[in-house]
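Bench notes, afternoon.
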Amino acid sequence: MNFFGRELNVYKANLHTHSTVSDGKYTPQEVIEHYAAQGYDVLAFTDHRKTNPVSTYDGKGMTLLSGIELHPHIMEPREIHWHLLSLGVPEDFPYGDDSNFKTAQEAVDAVNAAGGMVFCAHPYWCGLTSLDVKNNLKNILGIEVFNSSCRYIGREFNMQSWDELLEAGCRYNALAVDDVHSQSDLFGGYTCILAENKEPQSLLNAIRKGDFYASMGPEFKKITFENGILEAEFSPCVKVNVLANASSGYCASWDNYLHPENPEEYTSLKKDFSQWKNCYIRIQIQDKNGKYAWSNPIWL
């Protein structure tokens, strides 16, 4: 994929996974077999409060990443448990027990000190506002924009929270994940990591730099931004938007909003944003089946 002038490989990843090590229905090897059979390249194990010995598992050709989902002891604000998706922690990461830290920030600091990275998991499902995230978490990399397992109560999307955080100056990227616990969670959302190879450190470095996009199905084939010109190519979609601060933005598929009964499919976007200042822009596309894909924000 041409990603801002670099030709990078695309690796399909599920970065939020539970197994029988915590509250999942599948053993680690069963989870691996499910995702390998669907052509995934990367799988991160993020069991609640526990790491997995991923280096001992048979990845069936996939790269396995070590992770953990943390829940600080103090439930704040409003008696809400934080769910902190932590990637790249050592397999012997010692902070799974809630008693090891009280606040969410203590948990984030522990992950960062161990060389990992943190994303705030499904804030809408938790009942957390964007202000809660901004005021209580520092030095995280972003949030989940889509979580497959949260769809049962209609809280799978976090686009509004993401945009509110971006507008507040939080330079957050966003993942799409399954948060798989059982069969009904499989293959709803994934993250495409853009890297030179699929060695664990290469993938983790790419995530840390924001070299990825989130999707439920549509695929980006090109994203470039040169001399103020944003260009993108993608699989056929019926809604193509560029979101920015507040009411700013751009719609490349306006006719489809006017005539939804016979939508045209779009496969590219080109727009001059050279006059736009002090804002972010991000691309959001939707296919005819209602499935989204999201680019990470570009800061102008």
